[in-house]
Amino acid sequence: MNLLRSITTIASSSVISQLIGALSIWFISHKYGMAEVGIYSLIYSIVLVGAQVCTFASQLLHSTPAR
Fold it and tell me: 0.90 cut: is pTM over it?
C-alpha cells in the first residue's frame, strides 16, 4: 500500500505541474495577443495529461495482484 501511495503522489504532482505550465502558457499568450498559440498549447497539454493518466492507470492494473 505504501508503494501505491508514493506512486500516486508522484503521478499527481506531475499532472499538477503540467497543468500549471499549460495554464501559464495560455495566460501569457492571451495577454500578448497570441490566442491561437495559447489554445493550441492548452489542448496539447490536456491531451498529454490524459495520456499520462491512462498510462498510470494501465500500470496500476498490471501491478495489482490477482485475487
Answer: no
